[in-house]
Amino acid sequence: MFVDFNQNAKDRTVASAYSVRAAPDARVSTPLRWDEVRRVRPEDHTLTTVPARFAEIGDPWAGIDAEPGSLEALLELAERLGPVEKRPKGTGRRTLSMPLVEVAQARTKPEALAGLESWQRKHPDVMPLLEDSDVLVDGMRGSSSVWYRVRINLQHVPEAQRPEQAELEVDNDPWAGYRGSQRRR
What we know:
globular; alpha+beta; 4-stranded mixed β-sheet
């Protein structure tokens, strides 16, 4: 189980099981069996595929209420570990564990997409190897606004052909000038 505490914030939405996501391919938030977790991809579950899956295997969540779990061990671990670390100093960019390259951080979606187009022109040999789901365009919530990030997942590109992380095509630092939370008195 993954509990995304970041969703517990003002103006955030939470998807329930079998809800259709606002995506062009109408992906469905689909419960999985444990043996499916490592091999299933989100794009496999859409408004057109999930009804057949449900008819074939039933509901993986059937009976879940009869087997309640406990958060006690997780709460004890959280108590032992203490508060989470503050965001890293410097660029604030995380160390990536997947073969991702970041292309743009922009104030607007059109600026982010222009950065993506620029990157695509620089890497025409990579583009045919990518699947639609490998191009990640995210609207990110800042402290008072939304900004856009573009990343490319290079999982389908042979390692020898993967471009290195380069300077961003569009580099608007959303944290520039950020001084942390300041309460008014």
